[in-house]
UniProtKB/TrEMBL annotation:
The name this protein goes by in its record: Phosphate import ATP-binding protein PstB 3
Gene that this sequence comes from: pstB3_1
Highest taxon, organism lineage: Bacteria
Organism: Novipirellula caenicola
Region called Disordered, residue ranges: 1-26
Keyword Nucleotide-binding in record: yes
Domain ABC transporter: 45-289
Region forming the signal peptide: none
GO MF entries: ATP binding
Amino acid sequence: MSSENPNQPHRAKATDRQPCDPASDPFTIGPVDVGPPCCVPEPLIHVKNLAVHYGPQCVLDGITLTIHRGCLTALIGPSGCGKTSFLSSLNRLTDMIPGCRVEGEITLGGLDVRATRDVISLRRRVGMIFQKPNPFPLSIRKNIEMPLKEHGIRNRAERGEILQSVLEDVGLWSEVKDRLDAAALSLSGGQQQRLCIARALALRPEVLLLDEPCSALDPLSSRVVEELLTRFRGRYTVVVVTHNLQQARRIADYAAFFWATEGTGSLIEYDTGERIFETPQQPLTVAYVNGKAG
Ligand SMILES: Nc1ncnc2c1ncn2[C@@H]1O[C@H](COP(=O)(O)OP(=O)(O)OP(=O)(O)O)[C@@H](O)[C@H]1O
């Protein structure tokens, strides 16, 4: 860890990444109706001494960090160091993996994530987007409306409003508004991924977890999704796993670097994106961000 503690609110310096300015941002999308307009860090998720086991194997150990509201945190590190396991523990997807055991503390606002019995509400607050776009094999409209119905939104007009607003948020509305009843699987890979993001947004989450959301996309679609994530700054708390260090360098307000030793992942360094990529403190981080390790 570097001398400044990223678990404390980050005080912006002139040299830091400039927060977004919606007034001057030509890509601002949809109404910014939640949270401050820019990344003004405030602790939201506290993780303390987190460990993840699959059967007898401890794959992640001693993870302590604080994730800030409205900021974009990138998880980086080589394959197998536990990034996905960490991400999945934040909304208890780890519960669905046979033999998986999680230890330690995770709090989201005042909620004890590990203890809560209301996992459905937790997953509504903490949405997840996967590497491979996974729209339902239904129409574009039903992909958004079905989860809304399942979460009790019975009013058709309200569902229609949400449908339009989230498709606008991901920049898809103008592309699909005339074919909302077409199959979601007829969309391009990049459009499918944006639809999946819209589906997550429809449930009005506070946090979005994204596991390599661009890695199955062509470069152009990848750039569109990347831009989308940066526009979420201030509006959603975004935690994204990426193997693309250039991408992480471009978009991360904070970056957490994981590394595995003998199969057990640990957090090597956690800091602002700028410091992790420009002035990392740990030799392993220096080597990794310069492409000399991992
Ligand atoms: N369901 C599972 N059962 C057993 N072991 C698992 C399971 N899922 C992951 N692992 C193991 O846990 C370790 C961490 O995996 P994880 O997917 O969290 O790492 P990662 O950093 O996200 O990797 P990648 O970048 O390749 O996705 C790996 O050794 C992996 O083989």
